[in-house]
């Protein structure tokens, strides 16, 4: 059958400034790395690079965990990898829900056959330590505590160290979502005692979407090895994936890894190491302070209290009388600037401005403030009645 759409040509994306909740702007250096020649996923040169990625990810996660690698898939696949390996049917899992992504954790627990015990906090608030302590008191047989470190839907940060201490006190493992926090604020896996964590390549690491860094402690590995039931996912079963990522002896074929995207992640992690992770954290904080000063002049109000506010994900209350979709549409069409809308319970009520990775720079902050000022001036004008 002949192809009947001759007008379709090579796709040329518009040039945007990405300041939403992800993806972030990707530096040309990373794009160039991804354009290098494709080689086989079992090629010795490629497997050497895989070992370097593991070393670099240990630096990003601030961990010595041997089992640290990128899952082939977006952050959601990293999330599932943690849950399907660490939760068995009948396991009680205390799940902290203070936004959209805590809710997704609940769904993962249900689909693994686990029993979710919900600890709910208002959207925009950090997870309540007292509520978690009460949940453990009421459920001393809980096997896992799951929480989002940096809730992308609200811009709230929870106290990961204190939550992990509660879990250890009660003999439970921890699963932490650090999709939005890795590379932007301190993520200290070993110092905090986190057992399993997952992230994404497209946020503060400023790579393209499609890879999910994960890390597992020795306690977590012991849990996987002691399972009474098979891991429900063949693709995400750590017992199988590690044959490819282990680097011990001859690697076994598991799946065809996304070779060129892994080039990009390698380059992104090299760039993080060159900058120094503490410097990266400081840069995100400095750009947040610059944005905060400018937003105050525009009269825009943060949703999250300052003590729990993420520097890399800024949630703002939409001013009264401003049409959410129309304003964001103007930013996109007139300024090629993308910011994020609210999700779930906050849809239509907030904007989310991301300062992630390569997007966390002065030029972007100043451009965003200028564009917001212009759009708000137009959108705030009363509509003439004819």
Task: Walk me through this protein's architecture.
By secondary structure, the protein is α/β, with parallel strands linked by helices. It has two domains: 17-21 and 277-379, Aspartate Aminotransferase, domain 1 (Alpha-Beta Complex); 28-273, Aspartate Aminotransferase, domain 2. The chain has helices spanning 28-34, 44-61, 75-86, 100-111, 129-138, 160-169, 189-192, 218-225, 238-245, 259-275, 277-298, 324-335, 362-379, and strands spanning 17-18, 67-72, 92-97, 115-120, 144-148, 150-151, 156-157, 173-177, 196-198, 211-216, 301-302, 313-317, 337-338, 340-341, 350-354. Helix 12 (324-335) packs across helix 13.
Tell me the layout of helices and strands.
Elements: E1 17-18, H1 28-34, H2 44-61, E2 67-72, H3 75-86, E3 92-97, H4 100-111, E4 115-120, H5 129-138, E5 144-148, E6 150-151, E7 156-157, H6 160-169, E8 173-177, H7 189-192, E9 196-198, E10 211-216, H8 218-225, H9 238-245, H10 259-275, H11 277-298, E11 301-302, E12 313-317, H12 324-335, E13 337-338, E14 340-341, E15 350-354, H13 362-379
Parallel strand pairs: 1-13, 3-4, 3-5, 5-8, 8-9
Antiparallel strand pairs: 2-10, 6-7, 9-10, 11-12, 12-15, 14-15
């Amino acid at each position: 059958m002949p192809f009947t759409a001759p007008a379709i040509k090579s796709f040329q994306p518009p040039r945007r400034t990405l300041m939403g909740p992800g993806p972030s702007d990707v530096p040309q250096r990373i794009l160039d790395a991804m354009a290098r020649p494709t080689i086989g996923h079992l090629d010795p040169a490629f497997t050497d690079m895989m070992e370097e990625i593991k070393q670099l990810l240990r630096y990003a996660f601030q961990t010595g965990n041997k089992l640290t690698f990128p899952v082939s898939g977006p952050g959601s696949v990293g999330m599932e990898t943690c849950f399907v390996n660490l939760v068995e049917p009948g396991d009680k899992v205390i799940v902290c829900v203070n936004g959209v992504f805590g809710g997704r954790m609940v769904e993962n627990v249900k689909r693994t056959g686990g029993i979710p015990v919900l600890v709910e906090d208002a959207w925009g608030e950090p997870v309540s330590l007292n509520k978690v302590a009460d949940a453990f008191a009421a459920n001393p047989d809980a096997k896992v505590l799951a929480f989002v470190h940096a809730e992308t839907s609200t811009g709230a940060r929870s106290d990961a160290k204190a939550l992990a201490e509660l879990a250890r006190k009660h003999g439970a493992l921890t699963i932490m979502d650090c999709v939005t926090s890795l590379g932007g604020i301190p993520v200290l896996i070993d110092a905090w005692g986190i057992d399993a964590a997952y992230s994404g390549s497209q946020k503060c690491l400023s790579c393209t979407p499609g890879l999910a860094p994960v890390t597992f402690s020795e306690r977590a590995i012991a849990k996987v090895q002691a399972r009474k039931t098979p891991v429900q996912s063949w693709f995400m079963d750590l017992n199988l994936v590690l044959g490819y990522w282990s680097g011990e002896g001859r690697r076994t074929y598991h799946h065809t890894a996304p070779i060129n995207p892994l080039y990009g992640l390698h380059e992104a992690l090299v760039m993080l190491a060159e900058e120094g992770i503490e410097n990266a954290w400081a840069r995100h904080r400095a750009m947040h302070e610059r944005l905060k000063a400018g937003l105050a002049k525009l009269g825009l109000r943060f949703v999250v209290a300052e003590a729990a506010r993420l520097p890399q994900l800024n949630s703002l209350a939409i001013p009264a009388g401003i049409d959410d979709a129309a304003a964001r549409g103007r930013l996109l069409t007139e300024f090629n600037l993308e910011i994020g809308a609210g999700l779930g319970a906050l849809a239509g009520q907030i904007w989310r401005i991301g300062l992630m990775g390569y997007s966390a720079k002065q030029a972007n902050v100043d451009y965003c403030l200028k564009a917001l000022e212009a759009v708000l001036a137009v959108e705030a004008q009363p509509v003439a009645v004819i």
